[in-house]
Every structure is written in C-alpha cells, then in structure tokens.
Amino acid sequence: MDISDPAVIIFLVESYEKENRLRLNWITKHREKIEQAATLTRPPTNYFESDVTAHPMVAGMGTVTISHAVAGYNRRKKPIRDATFIPGIKYLRKGHSIVDIGLGDPKLDSKLVRPDTDLSSDPIMRPVDPELTQIIYKSKPEFGNMKYMEERGKILPEKRYYFAESSGWTYGWRLGDSTLKEKPMYGRCWHLTKTLKSRVGPQPDPAHYKSSVPPGRSHCDGI
After folding, report:
1. Where residue 24 falls among pLDDT bands split at 50, 70, 90?
2. What's the whole-number mean pLDDT along residues 159-178?
3. Domain residues of the chain, as ranges?
4. Mean of the pLDDT values across residues 180-190?
5. pLDDT given at position 179
6. pLDDT for position 223
C-alpha cells in the first residue's frame, strides 16, 4: 500500500477518526462498569502466594488423618499368603536355552556353561575363531580392522549369531536345516549347469520350443 497516495491518506485518516469515535462511544456507554472495575470496593486481604497454596492443603488434612488411622489398623493385620510357600530360584523350571534346543555347544562356547541359579540372558553372538581375531592385531594393509570385517562378512550369519538379529537375515536363515535341498530341474541356472557337465555339452533348443507360425499365407525363404 502506497501511503503517499492521496486516496490512501484519506482512507487512513477516515479509519482513524472512525476508530476514535467508536472507542469514545464504547467508553461513554460503559462508564459505570469501568469505574466499578477500577475501584477496589472489597476489603484488602493481603494474601501471599504461599497462603493460596496452603489453602487446599489445609482442606485435605482431614483425609490424611483418616488415612493414617486406617494404615495403623492395617499394619497390625497379618499378611495373607496365596500359598504355603513362596517359590524361589531353585524352584524355577529349567530348559529352553541355547544348549537345550541344540543351537550351541558348551564345549565350543564357554558362555553357555552356567549354573542353574544364573538367570542372565543367553549370549547373542557365537565365539569368534581365534585365527580370525589375530587379523586385527597384525600390520596393515594386508591385515587390520577392514580385513577382519571382510573375512568376517564371508561367514554365514547363522555361523556368527545364534539367532537372527535383523529382518534381512530372515530370508535364507539356516537353509541347511531344510530337507528340500534339491534344486529345481527346470531352473535356468540348474539347467545350464547340468548341460555343461553332460557328455555332449549344451545343445540347441528343440523344434517345439520355437515360436509357432501365425495363421495365413506363409512364404519360404529358399524359393
């Protein structure tokens, strides 16, 4: 908006005058209410913030006293037991660990050798081969952390961990346990491998593999 424009200046002046006139009319209309609100007509109490905070606390002291009396009565009661004895650690049922389900061998992993009273969780990672660990402490660039991670990545995740630690390991996890180890007979890779290992080698596709001749007149290239 250009305030140097005469039309804009006239509009602003009229707006200011109209606003002042409306404000004056409102003040004149509600003069009595404004004077009543601006004048302190009640006796001063001189309350502080702490007095206002303590007011609801004083009102609740009666309830606190009753609760204290009830608590003293309940403390003299004998506690009710659900059974004749409270089971402890020695009564817990053992089992369902890595050793029990056959995922680990205590002879290979010393962390799996624990007493029955030990309630700590099972280890997550399988023990690392000592020869593989020595790669970290050898000189670079032939060895070191990067070489260790590279060699470590060549090992199957199921050989490194007891359980799948990420959703990406779900596909292909422990495929060796499956009984369906035979590859499909008509798969592309399996068919090529079988023909390469055969006595005559790979052969062309049979005639019935070719596309059929469309209906209608056909011509012969030899004529």
Report:
1. very high
2. 82
3. 6-38, 124-172
4. 62
5. 56
6. 47
- 0.70 exceeded by the pTM? no
Give the position of tokens 């007011």.
55
- HSE-CB for 28 with a 13 A CA cutoff: 6
Tokens found for residue 74: 């309940």
> In whole angstroms, what separates CA 136 from the centre of its chain?
33
According to the 3-state scheme, what is the secondary structure of the chain?
CCCCCHHHHHHHHHHHHHHHHHHHHHHHHCHHHHHHHHCCCCCCCCCCHHHHHHHHHHHCHHHHHHHHHHHHHHHCCCCCCCCCCCCCHHHCCCCCCCCCCCCCCCCCCHHHCCCCCCCCCCCCECCCCHHHHCCCCCCCCCCCHHHHHHHHHCCCHHHHECCCCCHHHCCCCCHHHCCCCCCCCCCHHHHHHHHHCCCCCCCCCCHHHCCCCCCCCCCCCCC
Closest alpha carbon to 72 in 64, 60, 61, 80: 64
